[in-house]
Design a protein that fits this description.
By secondary structure, chain A is an alpha+beta fold. Helices cover about 50% and strands about 15% of the residues of chain A. Chain A is built from five helices and four strands; from the N terminus they run E-H-E-H-H-H-E-H-E. In chain C, strands 8-1-10-9 form a four-stranded mixed β-sheet. A two-stranded antiparallel ribbon of chain C has the order 2-3. The chains are: A alpha+beta, B mainly alpha, C alpha+beta. Chains in contact: A-B, A-C, B-C.
Chain lengths: ~170, ~450, ~260
Amino acid sequence: MATSAIALFGDSHAALAAARELTSAGFAAPTVISPVPLEAAEEVLGKKTSVIKRFTFFGALLGSASGFLLAAGTAVLYLHPTGGRPIITLPPFLVITYEMTILFGILSTVIGFLVSARLPAIRDRAYAPEAAVDRFAVAVTCDDGEGFQRAAQILREAGAEEVRNEAVSS
Amino acid sequence: MSETDLRYADVNRDIVRSLVETGPRYYITLGCAVGVALLCFFFPWFYQLNLGIGAAGMNHPQVWGTYEAGFIFWIGLSHSGTLLSCVLHITRSSWRKAMYRSAEAMTLFSLVIAVTMVMVHLGRPWFIHWAFPYPNQMGLWPNFRSPLLFDVTAIATYLTGSSVFIYMGSIPDFAAVRDRTTGWRRHMYTLLSLGWRGTDTEWHRLGWAYTLLAVLIIPLAVSVHSIVSWDWAMSIVPALHQTIFAPYFVVGAIYSGTAGIVTVMFLLRKFMGFEKYITELHFDNLGKLLLALSLIWTYINVLELFTGWYSGASSEIEALKYKLFGYYAPLYWEMILFCAIAPLLLASKRFRTSFGPMLWLSIAINIGMYTERFLIVGTSLSRKYLPADWGLYVPSLVELSILVGSIALFSTLFLLFVKIFPSVSIYEVKETLHEPAVSPERSGAAGSAAAGGDRWQPAR
Amino acid sequence: MTAKEPARKQEEPASSLAEKWREFRRPGYYQEFDYDWTMTVDLDRCMGCEACVTACKAENNLPIVGEKGFAQGREMQWIRVERYWEGEYPNVKLRFIPMMCQHCDAAPCETVCPVTATYHNQDGLNVQVYNRCIGTRSCAVYCPYEVRYFNYYDHRWDSPLEQQLNPDVTVREKGVMEKCTFCIQRIRQAKDLAKDDGRRRVRDGEVVPACVQACPAEALVFGDRKDPDSRVSKSLSDPRGYRVLDELNTRPSVIYLKKVTV
C-alpha cells in the first residue's frame, strides 16, 4: 500500500535540501508545499515547462478567427445596409476581432491553468495545512512501509520538525 | 512596512480576522449602504421604468445625460485597479502586493455599476439582450458596425478578464483561509480554492497563468476606454469628433481610477485595521502616479481645446466658447481646479505621505472627473450644428438620486467583498517578508530562497 | 406607363471568392435600391405657416406633449420649421427652413445603432423599426440635423382624440426613438396599388407625403429621383439647390432650393 511521507520544515532552504536528498536517494518526484512561490524550487526539482502559453496562444488565435467570423458572418447572414457602408466593414470588425482575441485568450489561459495545475482537485492529496501559513512541507510517495521509514530517516536528518504518514489513494 | 517584525503567521491571522470578525460598525455601514442604494437607486429607477425616461431631465437636443456620464465615470474608475495591478505585476514592483486585491475589486465593482448605468440609461432596458448575439426567433443579430456594440464586446471581455484575474490571484489565499475557518465559510472556501495545496507545480502554473493574464489585460484595458471614447468620437458632433479622444479617455480613466484607489486604500487602512500593510509608501507612490497622470491629463485637455480652435470651423468655435464661457462654464473651471491645479500639491512629499489630505484630494479629483464626463455630454450636445436646436439640459432629481445611489450600490458590493475575499493578498505580502526563522541556526540561511529577493524596502 | 424603368443589372451569382469579397465590399445588399425617394424644399416659397407640421402630426400619430413637455424641450415634430433672423433691427429678415429627416444615404444614425433598429430599406429610405429599438438614443446624438425624437413617456390621447389616430401608423411606446418616415405608409400603399395594376413601379405623383400635400405654397416636392421625368428630378436641376450641412458627407435626400448668399 502506497503511503505518503509529509515532513514540515521551518524554512524553504531546508525543505529544498531535503527534497534534493530524497531525489538522490531514488525517491520519485517529491513535492514541495509552500505558503509562497519558491523560485529556487525549479533548481532542485528540475526545470518545469508549462503548456499554458500554448493554450493562450491558440486560444487567442481561435478568438481572432471567431471574432472576425462573428462580425462578418452576422453582417453577411443578416444583410442590413447601414450608413452606406460595405457589408463587410473592416475597421469596425477589426475592433470586434481584437476584443474576441483577448476574450478567448483569457478563457483559454484559465482552462490551461486548470488543466496543467490539475485543479479542481477531486481526490484528497497529500497536504499539510501548516504549509499555508508558515511551514514548508515536503511530500513524497513511498511504495511500502520500509520506503516510508527510509524517507522519514532522510527527512529527519535534513532537519524536519515533524514527519507524518498519510495513506494516499492512487 | 518598515516594521519587518511582521511574521508569516501574523499575516494569516490578521487577514482571516478581517474576514470573520465583524463588528457592529460594519453592519451599520452595510445597512446604511443597502438602505441608500434601495432608496436612492432602485426606488427612483423603478419609478423611471414605470414612467419612462421622462423622469430624467433629458430633452430634445440633449438625449444623453447624467446616466451616460455616470457610465463613463464608472468605466473610468474601473480603469486603474486591474490595469495598475497588471503593470506592477509584470514590472515586479513589490509595493503593489498589499493593495492590488482591493484595487482589482474596485475595477470589478465599478464595471458592474457601469453596466447597471447602461440599464438605467436605456429607454427599454428590458430588451438589452438584443444587443447580444444569441440564437433567436427574430432572425436578427446585432449590428457589429456600431461603436456601442464595440462597447458590449469590450466590456464583456473586461468584466470576464478582471473577474478571472482577481479570482486566480486569490486561489492560494482562499486555500489559506479555508484551513483556518469553520462552518459555512469552510465549505465556501473549499469550493473557491479548488483544492489548492501550494505545491511547487501549482505555484509554477499559477505564476505562468497570472503573468499571461496580466499581459492580455493591459492592452484590453487600454482598448476598453478607447472604445468608450469612440461612442463620442465616432459621431460627427462638433467638439466630440476628435482623434485625441481615445488617449484622452484612457488617461482620464487611469487618473480617476488611481484617485479612487487612494480613497479605497484610505478607508481600508482606517476601518479594516490594515495599518501595517498599507503604509506611507503606497500613498507616496500612488501620489507620484497621480501627479504624472494629472499633468498628462491637463496637457491633453488643453490640446483638445487647441485642436477645436485650430480647425476654425464655426461649429467647433461655438462649442468651444460655450464650454469655456457658457452656461456650464462654472463646472468647467471647477474641473480645471480639481483635476489640473489642486493635484500640483502632490509635488510635495509631505503632502503625498499625509493620509487625510490625500483622501480629500482623491475625492476632489473624482468629483472633477465626473464633471468632465458630464461636460462632454452636456456642452457638446447643447451646441450642435443647427442653432435653432440649441438647448439646455439640467439633471432632474431622479438622476441626481440615482447618481448618489450608484455610489451606495458600489459601497454595498465592496463591503460584501471585504468579508468574502481576503482584501489584502496573503501570499504576496508574505513574499515581501523574511521567512519564518524557527531556530537560530537556520535564521542565517532564511530569506535568500524566497521569491526572487524583491523584498519590501522600507520607505525611503 | 411612361416612366422609364431603370435598367437593373442582372448579375450572375458570384463564382470566385474574390468576386464574392468584392460583392460584400459594396454598400447595401441590393445592387441598387429600387427607388430613390427625394424631396425638394423651395425656401423662396416657404412662408413658415407650419401647415406641414400640423399635417404631419395628424398623419403620423404624433403625441401632443402639452405646455410642460414643450417647456422641457420634448416636443415631437417630425417636421419642424426653424426660424432664423438675418441682420439687425430694423433691417431684419425672417428665414424659414422646414427640417425633417434628411434620409441620408450615408446616415450616421444607421451605423451607430447597436441593434439595427435603423437601417436603409429597399426603397433607399432611412427607416426606424420601433419594435426593435432599445432606446440607446445614440442615433439622435449622431444625427447632425437633430430630427430624431424620443418617446420620453407613454403618450395618452384624451377621449375622443384617440378616435382620430391614423390606423396605418403605429402608436409608439415609451423608450423608443422615432422620426420622419417620408410617410412610408403612403409609399407602401402606392406600391401595393402599382402591383395590383400589374406595374413594376410607382408613377410620379402617386406618393404624396402629408407635409407635401398640406403645403399651400407648393414649396415641397416629393418623388423618385430615379425617374428622370418626375417633378422632383426636374426641380433638382434648379441651380439654387443645396443640401444642409453638405460638408459632413451624409449625402441627404432632401434638397433645399435657395440661393446661398454667404
